[in-house]
Sequence to fold (481 residues):
Amino acid sequence: MNVFGSATMTFIDPLDPVSLELPVDSMRSMAFAAVARVLDHLGRVGEQHAAGLSAADLAPMHAAPPEEPTPLESFLDDFFDEWVPRALTTNGPGYLAYIPGGGVFPAAIADLLSNTTNRFTGAGFAAPPLVALEANVLEWFRDGMLFPETTRGVFTTGGSMANFNAILCARERHLGAEIRRGVLYTSTQAHHSVKKSARLAGIMGDRVRAIAVDETFRLRPDLLVHAIAEDRKAGLLPFAVVSNAGTTNTGAVDPLDAIADVARDEAIWHHVDGAYGAFFHLCPELRSLLSGLSRADSVTLDPHKGLFLPYGTGALLVRDGRALRAVHSESAEYFPERGDEYDPSQYGPDLSRGFPGLRVWLTVHTFGMKRIRAAIADKRALACSAAARIAALPGIVMLAPPQLSLFAFYLEGPSLEEENRMTRALLERVAERGRVYLTGCSTGGRFLARVCVMSFRTRQASMDACVEDVAEAARIARATR
Ligand SMILES: *Cc1c(COP(=O)(O)O)cnc(C)c1O
Fold:
């Protein structure tokens, strides 16, 4: 129980049976009660089990909605004590699984502000300064990626929807109504959202080519050229290549410059999936790791990964903004004529929507870009030093050293099967220990343990714990094989 309310407070006005307005004092109590729990949670964020607790003991949830008001406190108890701990601990410092994000606090305040003022940001005329603010944030991204002034972009719910919108642009520009003959190229390491996005855009699986990669998991441009030639010979229409600025499997950055050359020579669209890696481009000293990114026709950015925001914030930039407008522009009888000013619903599929730009805007204004760039660079530095220490452990094969802030390795054994088993056992043991959480991936029949450093909360102490726990788990896996 806290000082702001009683266990039974329900906040509503009992005298007005239809009102959904809350008295000011009720709103204050409600906000304070929630914030008190949030701060308590964040104060102990590092004490959570890094993998999260099992949800197996939870009863299925099929309750009918209550007819009468119920107290906030009992919900907050369930939320923070029962449900959140039984989810992956994605906001913890030891979360090195998948692609971490973290969820910076100013973005949560931004959501409170935008949800309570509830201004309509789908069209410029409805909230001119707020839409201008969002367009301004997209200009920051544009400049960070070294894209030209012709660029337009749109905030999406995530990287998947950004990839989808990019493929739509490419399809519309290069295929028009000739959709069925269109062929899209990506690497065997592409995120599954690429194939899914293609399908959503009407490009079926038999028209998506997964080009093989080299021993560093980078797409081979020579094989791309070959595949395009084969498809042209068969009467098909190559129209787009989706390359990776950091794959989810091993963090590989495709040869973006060479792929840009192929795309130019073949007159096809080059989309860079930078959901994991594009924000490293904000750091001038790291730009060479993503060399060629700034030549792409479009790039997916995922602020809820590389900019540490809470889930629900992705973005797409399109070099020739007219291509994005061409797929989304519509007029309506119930709307004023719309001019040339930036307008999210003319550049994306949503009309009514949240206000994702404010999340980024307030985060950047809270910290300043200098500190944000330093945090991004720090994640790479942490990954590089931990990878060097893990590579030096007995029996470890560092198959994919960090290209950005992700590395992947396996335990050496007498056979591939045995290596896969030992590497899985290593991951399980590390997860059980609960200080850090790593996940794996399979590529070409080999199972790899992977470490991705991308949460703003991950600092040296978590990486030390990671190295220690991997060392211990590797020792045990080798002793018991
Ligand atoms: C995470 C990821 C995506 C998908 O992004 P969401 O925000 O999860 O929709 C796409 N591509 C890559 C490389 C990713 O890491």
The pocket of pyridoxal-5'-phosphate is lined by residues 99, 158-160, 191, 193, 244, 247-248, 273, 275-276, 302, 314 (CB under 6 Å). Residues 369-391 form the longest helix (23 residues). Confidence is low (pLDDT under 50) at residues 1-8.
